[in-house]
Every structure is written in structure tokens, then in C-alpha cells.
Amino acid sequence: MNEPLHIVCPHCDAVNRLAQERLSDQPTCGKCTRELFMAKPLDVSSARFAKHIGRSDIPVLVDFWAPWCGPCRTMAPAYQQAAQRLEPMVRLLKVDTESAPDVGERFNIRSIPTLALFRNGREVARQPGAMDAGGIVAWTQAQLQASTTR
Description:
Blueprint: E1 5-8, E2 15-18, E3 42-43, H1 46-55, E4 60-65, H2 70-86, E5 91-96, H3 101-106, E6 114-119, E7 122-128, H4 133-149
Parallel strand pairs: 3-5, 4-5
Antiparallel strand pairs: 1-2, 4-6, 6-7
């Protein structure tokens, strides 16, 4: 039998245990009773970022961006569309490098937008530059496939 997955609630940040086969069953949080997956990226602060990266058993895709960045704003709708296609197998986060500069510095983010894929608390892939929704989904799936064979 598979071990339950830890899923961090996008609303209250409680860590929930969930059987993998229930990911697609529109699960709700045991603490706040709201949905665990919203099919949209979650804007996070430094503290929330650390919790989602460190406690989630599903992969986490992060868009490092800034409000003044034209390509970041252009990619935002595509990232939203990608979330609809990737959740619940992947959690999508957005980190504003202006309001959370410590996170950008910690991961040595030098250009934005930059996508970073995390698995088990560790960065496994990075891709700078804006992409369309299909490109984001294809890149993420390819990286997940590659990281399971390493």
C-alpha cells in the first residue's frame, strides 16, 4: 500500500495527509475544509514558500517574477492555464522577487521570469524566460520524467 502524501493547504497552510489515489477527487483540507487544489497558481511569501517547498510530497513549480517585468506579466495568463493542466499532480507557486527578495537571493535568481521545479524540498530543474502554457506544461512534465530516472 502507498504511503499517504503530504499536501500543504493553499488557504491555511495546514499539512494534510492524502492517499495518492485521492488527488483527483477534489480533496479538502482537514483544518479549514477548503479545497486543496484550486487549478491556479498560489502567490506566496517567504514563510509560505518554505512550508510549501519543504512539506509538500507533490512536485512544486515556482514562477519567480516581479510586477515591473513585462515578460512576467505576459507569461502570467499562460502560467494560470498551466496550473489548470498540471494540478493536482504539481502545485504551482508564484514568488514576487520584489516582496520576497530573500527567496530570490537564496536560489540565485538572476533573471525573471524564471521557473524552478522542486521535488522533495530540492530544486531539480530551472528554466529562465517566458513561455506559453503548452511550453510550461511540456517542460514541467519532461523535467519530472527526467528527475524520476536520476
